[in-house]
Amino acid sequence: MNFTENIANRYTTKLYDASKKVDADIIEQLKQVLYLSPSSLNTQPWNFTFIEEGEKKQALAHHSFHNTEKVQKASHIVAFNVIDDLEYFEQKIEETLPEYAVQYYQNNLKGQPAEEIKSWMSKQVYIALGVFLSACASMGIDSTPMEGIEPEKYTEILGLDKHKTILAVAIGYRDEEDLNQLSKKPKQRRAFEEIISTTR
Ligand SMILES: Cc1cc2nc3c(=O)[nH]c(=O)nc-3n(C[C@H](O)[C@H](O)[C@H](O)COP(=O)(O)O)c2cc1C
């Protein structure tokens, strides 16, 4: 399948087959995908936690609202975390980015209210989400992006210090009874012309 077909065939999985686990080598590839995701100025204001079956995954399930069963039955959960400590963030970029990028940050972003800088950092994490969902699709892995979680509880259970969880993704293999799969529920989108236009 080409990329467009992979995207057309992916869907948000609502019911997982708990007996099927994603192989370790695929998990390693998905870790690389997140590691290599792009971010503005290459600031990488994030980290990502892969949660295998175990105590923490079951604890997270109870702080995942309508997503509880997905978290319980999916093979792995990936927490998408953003840096929550601006001093730490600035120290990281000063240590690792070229001078022009540090200057750009200092001249254009640093003066803004902390909440705006943090919002800009969160946008970078959502770019990684898009890359990750696309990678899953191309590798035949089913996935569920989940904002329907309690981020503070995830942050606490995962023991994050300088970061906080903002969303999570369940990955695994669909249960054949999943009512959301495309054979049972065709893709829903507004009219193409309403969404996509061309101009010059
Ligand atoms: C950022 C984000 C958060 C989402 N949160 C949830 C969620 O908590 N639970 C869920 O079942 N689906 C969640 N979804 C899935 C969307 O509802 C789904 O992508 C949308 O309805 C389009 O359907 P499709 O992904 O099957 O094409 C989320 C999607 C995105 C992009």
How are the SSEs placed, and which strands pair?
Layout: H1 3-9, H2 24-35, E1 46-51, H3 55-61, H4 68-73, E2 76-83, H5 86-96, H6 99-108, H7 114-138, E3 142-146, H8 151-157, E4 163-172, H9 192-195
Antiparallel strand pairs: 1-2, 2-4, 3-4
The chain binds flavin mononucleotide (FMN).
What does this structure look like?
Belongs to the nitroreductase family. Pfam families: Nitroreductase. Residues 7-173 form the Nitroreductase domain. With 200 residues, this protein is of the alpha+beta class. The chain has one domain: 3-Layer(aba) Sandwich (NADH Oxidase). The chain is 44% helix and 14% strand. It contains nine helices and four strands. The protein has a four-stranded antiparallel beta sheet, with helices on both faces. The longest helix is centred in the middle third of the chain and has 25 residues, at 114-138. It binds flavin mononucleotide. Flavin mononucleotide is lined by residues 11-12, 14, 67, 144-148, 167, 187.
Q: Count all strands and give the number.
A: 4
Low-confidence stretches: none
Question: How are the strands of the largest sheet arranged?
Answer: 1-2-4-3
**CATH topology descriptor:** NADH Oxidase
> Hey, roughly how much beta strand do the residues contain?
5-15%
Question: Which secondary-structure class do the elements indicate?
Answer: alpha+beta
InterPro entries: NfsB-like (IPR033878), Nitroreductase (IPR029479), Nitroreductase-like (IPR000415)
Family: Belongs to the nitroreductase family.
Protein name: NAD(P)H-dependent oxidoreductase
Domain Nitroreductase: 7-173
